[in-house]
């Protein structure tokens, strides 16, 4: 069950926070379309810029939205970012690449929700112990910093020890995928690449075109850019002479004060890019997602019963009229 702050959403979808792609325009458009918009704090080069973005969003929408914070120890700006969190009170804070503990006390003090992005069960248990309200299960197929577990295995495994909010992502780009994510036991489904190619996205036109023109076979998982395995568009790495088997000099670094130094022109995507064929406004994407979701649900509910099922039943096992 969704928390009250998220209960009024049109679709149970998170417009995923995407590095150097998500800005106020995308967050506001997503919120107005009825889904949960989000942006990463490192997309702002300075604390003053983050202050301005937060002010723009809070002044434009009265529906839920989310801020994504990098809580890795290399992020020298985290204390300043948290000060702004306390001031602007985003309804949801999504932590990534580090312990969620620094954010929990600040966000809970004003009644907000903390969701920790995790890529495996060990990190999921640590985040639960830190007191988060939800977990973002970054599964195989996700763009950017990606996971390796199938959502079909990841979600039920986490459900065995956590009954809080679960967000699952990994290769979802249409409404049928949203329904599939909910069927695993998740409460929200994260979609990134489909929203990357939209009018409100800050991705440069060449990036959007590469997403539209390429498919899953053009992706490569590599730690060569950030030091952490991520899903990249291979033509982007090739264009800059990046060896996917290499590692970055200096190891991992996620400092919000210098977010674009290594990978500003290196482009990530998830496995859903094969379903992305255009770059319309966010509102049109959400309209399509809702239509596809309802079509997929109708198809599931009205499908003929399995030969071994109860005669005359037109619903899958476990559903009621």
Summarize the topology:
Blueprint lengths: L12 E3 L8 H10 L2 E5 L6 H14 L4 E6 L7 H11 L3 E5 L4 H9 L3 E6 L2 H9 L4 E5 L5 E2 L5 H9 L5 E5 L5 H9 L4 E4 L1 H4 L8 H9 L5 E4 L7 E4 H6 L42 H21 L19
Helix pairs in contact: 1-2, 1-11, 2-3, 3-4, 7-11
CATH topology: TIM Barrel
Cα(first) to Cα(last) distance is 20 Å
Quote the average pLDDT: 90
Widest β-sheet, arrangement of strands: 1-2-3-4-5-6-8-9
CATH class descriptor name: Alpha Beta
> Could you give a short account of the major beta sheet?
8 strands, parallel, barrel
Q: At the fourth CATH level, what is the homologous superfamily?
A: Aldolase class I
Our Rg estimate from Cα atoms comes to 19 Å
The rough form would be described as globular
Domain unit count: 1
Keywords:
single chain, 321 residues, alpha/beta, TIM Barrel, 8-stranded parallel β-barrel, 11 helices, Aldolase_TIM
Walk me through this protein's architecture:
One of its GO terms (molecular function) is monooxygenase activity. Pfam families: NMO. Keywords: Flavoprotein, FMN, Monooxygenase, Oxidoreductase. Residues 312-321 have a biased composition (Polar residues). The protein has one domain: TIM Barrel (Alpha-Beta Barrel). The chain has helices at 24-33, 47-60, 78-88, 101-109, 121-129, 151-159, 175-183, 193-196, 205-213, 234-239, 282-302; strands at residues 13-15, 36-40, 65-70, 92-96, 113-118, 134-138, 144-145, 165-169, 188-191, 219-222, 230-233. The longest helix has 21 residues, at 282-302. The strands form two sheets. The protein has an eight-stranded parallel β-barrel, surrounded by six helices. The chain has a three-stranded antiparallel beta sheet with strand order 7-11-10. Helix content is 35%, strand content 15%. Mean pLDDT is 90; it is low at 311-321. With 321 residues, the protein is of the alpha/beta class. A hairpin with a 7-residue loop joins strand 10 (219-222) and strand 11. The chain contains eleven helices and eleven strands.
